[in-house]
Amino acid sequence: MADTTTKAKLRWGLLDVIVVVFALIPVLWIASLSFKTPATLTDGKFIPREWTLDNYRTIFQTDQFVRALVNSIGIALIATLVAVVLGAMAAYAISRLDFPGKRLLVGVSLLIAMFPQVSLVSPLFEIERQLGLFDTWPGLILPYITFALPLAIYTLSAFFKQIPWDLEKAAKMDGATQGQAFRRVIAPLAAPGLFTTAILVFIFCWNDFLFAITLTSTERARTVPVALSFFTGESQFEDPTGAICAAAVVITIPIILFVLFFQRRIVSGLTSGAVKG
Amino acid sequence: MADIVLDKVSKKFPDGTVAVQDVDLEIADGEFVILVGPSGCGKSTTLNMIAGLEDISSGELRIGGERVNDKAPRDRDIAMVFQSYALYPNMTVRENMAFPLRLAKLDRETINQKVEEAAKVLELTPLLDRKPANLSGGQRQRVAMGRAIVRQPKAFLMDEPLSNLDAKLRVQMRTVVSRLQKQLGTTTVYVTHDQTEAMTLGDRVVIMRGGAVQQVGPPQELYDHPRNLFVAGFIGSPAMNFLHAAVQDGSLRTALGDVPIGDRVRRQLEGADAPRELILGIRPEHFEDAALIDDDTRRRGMEFEAPVEIVESMGSDKYVYFGVEGERASAAELEELAADAGADFTGGGASLVTRLSAESAVREGGNHRVWFNLEKIHLFDPNTGRNLTLHEGRAAGAVAD
């Protein structure tokens, strides 16, 4: 018996390693490229023969990239914050209240999530130009919120449904207003859900390319994924592969930090002990 | 401290179901009232309406003489203990108990003092800094009680607070609740589906069925003088025996023999629309082994002989189950009670539960002669469920005139 379990463990371990390696190879490849010199870039070696930080220096010297990084961080953070706050309120209402048109609302929000974004790009472009939102932060934040909200509402309402309703009733009996009950009792318990949603929404905003490239035209609101595609080498004929790779590595860092930071807050079993014995 | 008055309070849900219908109830200051009934009888809805967690469709609710129909729960100054305890899992025991005081914006010192006091009463002091997840069921239950008593509200509402505890702890907590209520003298409304809890705890018991109050009174009165079939069947464990009885030639033909009826009951049965078939109810303790009674007692009852099915010796007395022939008593109330108890009452002959004295020599398998007290039997109209033997509010038995 012990033999089979060891074998099973080995098998699973091997499988895990294969999956992780498979997923990580492109990332590592990019990281490796970012440390190579232009001369050795295409030598096909996984580990660079000549290490260099020139690529990183280049990208941070260009105002273009730094500016895009600021845009990206700002836009993604604001969109995440607004989407999570609005999503939390909507999800709370959906999971707790019975109001006319509830199913319709949920259905429509699902519809928005399913809608092919590419078909909305041209109308959005026209609308934003008319409204003067084109190439501004709000011009990107608004569509991001629109598409992140269904996701936020779905994830959050699942979390809210897990919180025993008795807790809210108890809070009300203890003298809390609806708002106090939500802020002091429900929200702390829904924290794992809020953080999970925040991570998902942030990743969505951070990685978006489609809206960012169509709804911006200058450095004012251009985000990193778009800025990357506009990278040029020293001359027109030089391929800025190394710099693009360095930039790609740089933009993964905030998202890793963001996830690591919030992941620690995602403690499961936070509601244990609330009800029953 | 305040009285609670329900004046024709009803609850109708948007889908049209009526959960509570015209409940009239006056709960005196400091009284301990139990709402009891099978599931779906509207007892929890009634409690939630008193709490303010559920809107009142019609009627008036007054707490301390003041109409509170439209007041939010927080403005009614009443505390509630939930069946699930509903402790805030992210707070320690101390924070849980301090929560209502913090919302009331008391100063830190007063809060601490009050929490310590309440913790002492409930023996929670060593647990104050623990989280609910690290407490046992009984401890959580006490914290829930602590959170209710800490702010000295006008009234306590308890929604089946003991039903999640195991049997032994439940009995123990029952006395804790009872003592606490007497000590604090706070008006308490307590909801339960357990008739033992209802009998042991309350000053008065309200029996509900289908959203309507069936009978209100002290536990002993409900037990001795049930107004209808439902109350009779619900209160008491083991439950009252119900037998089919046909009215024939001035007596009742039952599986136990012909039971004589007194003048008063006979007069009631003489009307044109009087039922020809009745349901006879006798409690298990009103039977006795015929060999163990003196002549004086014998005269007040009658005897029958029946095959013994099962003998359960409880030490202090014996529960003996007899198989009796004859038609089974049937009424809507009885079916409802059976469904609530999860019992399957569709067997052949009726089974009779009796509580005989421990000295009885009754044996399983044989026939045994048993006496029962005619003064203690009840007769019910199967159509209305009304207790026909009730006279001026008291049950007088079938033979009394």
UniProtKB/TrEMBL annotation, chain A:
Subcellular location field: Cell membrane
Transmembrane segments: 12-31, 73-92, 104-125, 137-160, 181-204, 241-262
Membrane-protein topology: Multi-pass membrane protein
Alphabetically ordered keywords of this record: Cell membrane, Membrane, Transmembrane, Transmembrane helix, Transport
Gene3D superfamilies, sorted: MetI-like (1.10.3720.10)
InterPro entries reported for this sequence: BP-dep_ABC_trans_perm (IPR050901), MetI-like (IPR000515), MetI-like_sf (IPR035906)
Broad class of the protein's primary localization: membrane
Domain ABC transmembrane type-1: 69-262
Superkingdom field: Bacteria
SUPFAM superfamilies with a match to the protein in the record: MetI-like (SSF161098)
Protein family: Belongs to the binding-protein-dependent transport system permease family.
Protein name: Carbohydrate ABC transporter permease
Highest classification ranks of the organism: Bacteria, Bacillati, Actinomycetota, Actinomycetes, Micromonosporales
UniProtKB/TrEMBL annotation, chain B:
CDD domains reported in the protein's UniProt record: ABC_MalK_N (cd03301)
Pfam families the record matches: ABC_tran, OB_MalK
Name of the molecule in the record: Sn-glycerol-3-phosphate ABC transporter ATP-binding protein UgpC
Positions of the ABC transporter domain: 4-235
Molecular function via GO: ATP binding
Species of the source: Micromonospora thermarum
Sorted UniProt keywords: ATP-binding, Cell membrane, Membrane, Nucleotide-binding, Translocase, Transport
Organism taxonomic ancestry: Bacteria, Bacillati, Actinomycetota, Actinomycetes, Micromonosporales
PROSITE patterns assigned: ABC_TRANSPORTER_1, ABC_TRANSPORTER_2
NCBIfam families: PRK11650.1
Keyword Disulfide bond on entry: no
InterPro entries: AAA+_ATPase, ABC_transporter-like_ATP-bd, ABC_transporter-like_CS, ABC_transpr_MalK-like, ABC_transpr_MalK/UgpC-like, Mo/tungstate-bd_C_term_dom, NA-bd_OB-fold, OB_MalK-like
